[in-house]
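Mods, move this if it's the wrong board.
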Amino acid sequence: MRWKDGRRSTNIEDRRGKRVPRGVKRGGGIGILLLALVGMYFGIDPALILNLGENIQTEQVGSQTQSAAPSAQEQQEADFVSVVLADTEDVWTGVFNEGGGTYQKPTLVLFTGAVQSACGFAQAAMGPFYCPGDQKVYIDLSFYQDLKNQLHAPGDFAQAYVVAHEIGHHVQKLLGISDKVHAMRSELSKKEYNKVSVRLELQADCFAGIWANRAHKMRQIIEPGDIEEALTAASQIGDDRLQKQSRGYVTPDSFTHGSSAQRVRWFNQGFSTGDIGSCNTFNAQSL
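Not the wrong board. Structure tokens:
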């Protein structure tokens, strides 16, 4: 991916090495097990896990400090993320302008180990996430090593896809889509709400494809093999593949993000069209 000549976003909040406040909430008992499972995913709404209610308990969380300065690799990864974020800003500003609207740029927070957001306490094991409560994307850059080594999805374009997917959730927030979906939580059974959640996540994948399409038209960022990297990442984080790896069997009714094939399909949909109108997963008869 050609990125080094790109503009750097100023909407970066660097909390790496910062202390995590004491007395924050985190899941206890089964909640911790859920966090461990969700650690294989990214892009999930943290409220789905952090606000479970019955299994939430308050405990003292030891403060974290990191005295060592970021390594050269970490600095390059942070630089890379700021360029990808800038490209998403340019792409979505253009898309919103075409529709007569104004794009509100989110902030991307870099953190180490654990972080407190408007959605609650989160650990790096959860992976990158978007918090609609403060309209910020959170990422511990160590996730990129997990993406490469554990999920077998290496490459800088795969890393960019992760950011673009989370920004896709921000776009959904601005369009009022995610609020409508979250309002359904109390109205639907868990099984039915999971189905709606899948459509929300697949739309974010489609929006990531729109970013790839338009960013390439703007700056010629895509090199041979880049799209394959993104598709590999999308495939590796499908609910079916992750469930098979973690417990040896698949339960479609529990899917919250979509199967590998579905995630690949919807990223391709956005990439091939570059049109936000082509990403209406909620009206699609077949995912």
